[in-house]
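Fill in residues.
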């Protein structure tokens, strides 16, 4: 049986059924998933029963896997495989993280609108998040369609942001929440990197905004003007008409296109309820400036 694709809206987010992703996929099913991914940017696969190895194996269909940022801190004890991002609220012994635990405070930054790994010179292509356990209330994830948001910009704004390059660092987004506990190795690993603010997607040819809470500066622009522009674009892109809100079910797998979406995790009582969420992230093919034909030196 061919896979079934049920759109949430005509052009953004869809549910996919009649497929078991924990098993090797045939070329027709994989091609259908890729086509749906290009069109909808966010795909929800209900009732997928993964272990870590099978989730990582499925993710490799999309490209090379990233390593978790927590590996940059030598004394951090990983709960999961190094190619898994641990975005739940459990420690290495599967206990709920305490209020002042460093990992908990760091992960609170996921509640800001962001794009995974835009703070890496080679950013993310897509993310694949699997729900192993979820809270009974709260903890939704919101996704914003940055292609539709770009299309809806005034022409003057499109001209203004064409060719602009922003500096992204995860230290900047965490600083917004008062978190600054980075050691020397992390500060070196997380130095700001350049990313374009508007990009053309290689598969669909569509233009998309490319912004995130990780932006700390825009090259050639003073800080006040840059902050105002990023805030203006973020407010525009996260209007209700561009946003899909996902209410998680156990064993949901959600895949999203990091090139053309932003997302954020919503609040829940993380001192009462366990949330075990495991994400594999696939690297993009090249830095965004290179993809847009911009010669940009590192600073």
């Amino acid at each position: 049986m061919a896979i079934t694709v049920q759109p949430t809206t005509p052009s953004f987010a869809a549910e996919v059924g009649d497929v078991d992703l924990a098993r090797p996929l045939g070329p027709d099913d994989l091609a259908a998933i890729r086509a749906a991914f290009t069109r909808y940017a966010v795909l929800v696969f209900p009732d997928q029963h993964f272990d870590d190895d099978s989730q990582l194996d499925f993710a490799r269909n999309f490209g090379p896997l990233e390593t978790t940022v927590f590996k940059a801190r030598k004394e951090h004890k990983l709960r999961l495989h190094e190619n898994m991002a641990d975005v739940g609220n459990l420690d290495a012994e599967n206990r709920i993280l305490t209020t002042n635990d460093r990992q908990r405070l760091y992960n609170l930054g996921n509640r800001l609108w962001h794009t995974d790994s835009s703070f890496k010179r080679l950013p993310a292509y897509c993310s694949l998040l699997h729900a192993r356990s979820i809270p009974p209330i709260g903890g939704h994830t919101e996704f914003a369609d940055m292609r539709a948001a770009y299309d809806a910009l005034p022409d003057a704004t499109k001209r203004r942001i064409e060719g602009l390059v922003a500096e992204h660092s995860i230290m900047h987004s965490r600083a917004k929440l008062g978190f600054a506990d980075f050691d020397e190795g992390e500060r070196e690993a997380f130095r700001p990197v350049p990313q374009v603010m508007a990009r053309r997607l290689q598969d669909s040819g569509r233009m998309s905004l490319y912004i995130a809470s990780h932006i700390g500066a825009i090259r050639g622009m003073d800080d006040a003007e840059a902050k105002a522009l990023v805030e203006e674009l973020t407010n525009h892109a996260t209007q209700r008409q561009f946003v899909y809100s996902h209410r998680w079910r156990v064993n949901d797998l959600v895949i999203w296109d990091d090139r053309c979406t932003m997302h954020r995790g919503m609040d829940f009582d993380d001192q009462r309820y366990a949330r075990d969420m495991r994400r594999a992230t696939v690297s993009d093919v090249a830095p965004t400036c290179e993809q847009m034909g911009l010669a940009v030196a590192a600073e």
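The CA atoms of residues 1 and 284 lie 31 Å apart.
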